[in-house]
Structure prediction request, 306 residues.
Amino acid sequence: MRRRDFITRLGVGSALTSLGSFPYEALLKNDMLKLCILHTNDVHSRIDPFPMDGGRNEGLGGAARRASLINEIRSLEDHVLLLDSGDIFQGTPYFNYFSGEIELKLMSQMGYDAACIGNHDFDAGIESLRSQLDAHANFPIVNSNYEFKDTPMKGKALNYKIFDKGDLKIGVFGLGIQLEGLVPKHWYLDTEYLDPIQKGNETASILKNDLKCDYVICLSHLGYKYRESNRLSDIDLAKSSKDIDLILGGHTHTFMRKPDVQENAIGKEIHIHQVGFGGIYLGRIDVYFERNTKAKCLRCNNQLVK
Prediction:
C-alpha cells in the first residue's frame, strides 16, 4: 500500500496535528505506541439525554450512552485514559436531590481515571463535596492550585497522578478557577487560591523533568479564552508553559472540533481542547509515540453521544 493511502486509511490525514517532525515510517513499521485519551467537561449533572423539546440538543447525550461508547472504545484500544475537567455537578434535579451521589457513582462505574474540580462542584458546600467523594468516587481528584489544608477537603485532592500505559508514563494534574466572586464564600470556606500559571508550571516541571513522564496533561477549569485581559485562561497557561503537552479544558463550555495549537514559552506546540457541555460529545484524542524516540503526533476525533 502506498504511504499516502495508508495514512488516509488510518484516519490521520488532514486531521493529524504534528508535534515536531514525526517520522511516518514509524506508522508503516508499526513501530509506535498509541494512547487514546477520552475526556469530558462541564457535564453538569446531565444524567439523561436532553429532552425532546425541539431544542438544538434534543435527544443527545446521556450517561448510559456515554458509558456504552466508552466501553466500545475500550474494547478496541489497549491504552485508554478517561478524564474530566470539572463542573461535574449542578444543572438538573439529580444534583438538587442527591448532591452529586448519582454523578460520582456513574463516573466510577464508567471507569474515570481522574477529574479536576470546577466551581460548580462546590455548589452543595465543601463538606458535602468531601463526603460525596469519599462515599462514591473511586477515581482521584487532581488539583495543584487550591490549598485545602484548613478545609474539609484537606488531603483529598492530589497534586498529580501518574498513569503507566504500556511503555508510556503519563502525568495528569489539575487547575481550578478563582472562586472568590464566583462561588459564595460559605461554600468553599478557607480554600486558598494559588496562581494557576505558577503552580501549573511547577507541577508540569516535576512530572516531565523530575519524574520523567513521557506526556503531561493538564485538566483545567480556567476557561478557554476571554475578552477581558485580566482573566487567566487556558491560552495564557499554554503560552507560559514549557512542560505541558495537552490542556483539556472546561468552564467556558466551548465546543471545539479540533484542538487549538499554541506556541509555548520555548517555541514548541501545545494543544488545548474542550468539548462543550452536558455530555453531548465525548472528546477523543489519540496520541501516537514513536517507540524508540518518543516523537509524537496527535489526532482528534470527538464523538457525538447519541
In short: The first strand starts at residue 16 and ends at 19. The chain has one domain: 25-55+77-281+289-304. Residues 1-21 have pLDDT under 50 and may be disordered.
